[in-house]
Amino acid sequence: MEGIDNIVLQETEDTKRAGGNPGDLATERSDNDEAGDSGAYVRFSKPYVFEDDTFGGIDMSCLEGISTRDMMEIEKRFYRLGITSMNPENTLAYAKLVIQKASGLPIEFFEGLPVKEMMKIKGRVVNFFYS
Length: 131
Description:
Elements: E1 9-11, H1 13-17, H2 31-35, E2 41-50, E3 53-59, H3 68-80, H4 92-103, H5 107-111, H6 115-130
Antiparallel strand pairs: 1-3, 2-3
Helix pairs in contact: 3-4, 4-6
């Protein structure tokens, strides 16, 4: 996970109190996040542990950095999975590939998420494409 340019994750308050440190990926909560999900932040229903770090959500603003070249690479990866869809951008698999590319996090991070959390992320990815 080293070298990630986008700050994409937030550790939970419990991890901060316990002295945990997910490194450069941790961000501070904004006032909007305290009331619930902000437009660019997806808060997880409960803390998510990945590689010994605990995360409370993911900052979706990293989607702003996706280029056309990135999207073409994502499409190639998607079709190599053997999935056919008239609207690939509306599939969970496509959303997973997009957020993985945008965030720079390993695909395993997203594959291990509870489905409810991944569906929240998928919704934000789809909304990003159509907004």
